[in-house]
Amino acid sequence: QKEVEQDPGPLSVPEGAIVSLNCTYSNSAFQYFMWYRQYSRKGPELLMYTYSSGNKEDGRFTAQVDKSSKYISLFIRDSQPSDSATYLCAMVGGGGNKLTFGTGTQLKVEL
Amino acid sequence: GAGVSQSPSNKVTEKGKDVELRCDPISGHTALYWYRQSLGQGLEFLIYFQGNSAPDKSGLPSDRFSAERTGGSVSTLTIQRTQQEDSAVYLCASSLGVYKPNYGYTFGSGTRLTVV
Questions:
Q1: A87 compared with B55, residue with greater pLDDT
Q2: Is A39 part of the contact surface with chain B (CB cutoff 8 Å)?
Q3: In chain B, which residue's Cα lies nearest the Cα of A32?
């Protein structure tokens, strides 16, 4: 079993929809949680990060962490075709230095 | 530089040949990471450098893989006697130091390696 599980999709939604992306994990030492966005043939870019449990909002994006359930989510409101990409969750323990990534969810937002 | 630069962007090689992949991190970033991305496998950690030393090389899949970093800057990942299962996108990332979330990783665009 992988340390981080993420549904690979693909997920197809109409423009304007609310998108929910999720990851589960097994390592209780993880404390920092990140979401990366990766466009085709590009490297991942950091979208958001959160520390421990709670919510964080940035524009149309909201990240949620529930450490008790070992479950993290990314919500995208008013989705746009430009949001079409692969979204990867990543996490690291407080004393760690390397990120553990999910496999990524491929999202397509259609006109 | 303005971003993390990787070269070549694409490499096709014959099985059994050696390849060298290069990463030029952001100036001043002391930490450098190599990851491998295969279809459906996500990002797999290979090795981490702090300065010129590699405190964690636990992800290197076999002794055919090696990496070095010189001058606290450019890093080279070498794969000897390439095999078809080595085909993947090799991504390099750098950060200001040992990972802190407010520093984040900056990734390059990767080298797409195809072994035929």
A1: A87
A2: no
A3: B101
